[in-house]
Amino acid sequence: MKPVQIYTTPTCGYCAAAKRLLTSKGVSYAEVDVAAHPARRAEMMERAGGRRTVPQIFIDGQHVGGCDDLYELNETGKLDPMLQD
Q1: Which residues of 18-50 are buried (b: 16+ CB within 10 A; e: fewer)?
Q2: What are the counts of helices (DSSP H) followed by strands (DSSP E) for the chain?
Q3: What SS3 state is found at 24?
Q4: Residues 51-68: pLDDT tens digits?
Q5: What is the predicted pLDDT for the residue at 12?
Q6: Nearest residue to 30 (alpha-carbon basis) of 2, 52, 69, 67
Q7: Rg of the chain (C-alpha set)
Q8: What is the pLDDT of residues 1-55, one digit of tens each?
């Protein structure tokens, strides 16, 4: 599996939903809590083209968007190929 990184906050329901989907697929991910590490929010925004909201999800360094984007990729059958080595 390709590496997955997800920027989150502890109280974000969309973050929890995105992590549930990834976990259900057996995908491990590196989580960055931008509430606990506020300086990392600027990093997230730069990598995500200015997006401020969480989650922001990256697969193999490529920005795929937020929770809705992740679920859309899954529903259209595009997520699994993106995750494969």
Answers
A1: bbebbeeeebebeebbbeeeeeebeebbeebee
A2: 4, 4
A3: helix
A4: 999 999 999 999 999 999
A5: 96
A6: 2
A7: 12
A8: 899 999 999 999 999 999 999 999 999 999 999 999 999 999 999 999 999 999 9
pLDDT tier at 85 (50, 70, 90 boundaries)?
A: confident
Q: Which residue has the tokens 């989150």?
A: 8
Domain positions in the chain are 4-83
Cα–Cα distance measured from residue 2 to residue 76, given in angstroms and rounded to the nearest whole number: 19
Per-residue model confidence (pLDDT) at position 51: 95
The residue type of 5 is: Q
Architecture in CATH for domain 4-83: 3-Layer(aba) Sandwich (3.40)
Burial of 66 (0-12, 13-18, 19+ CB in 10 A): buried
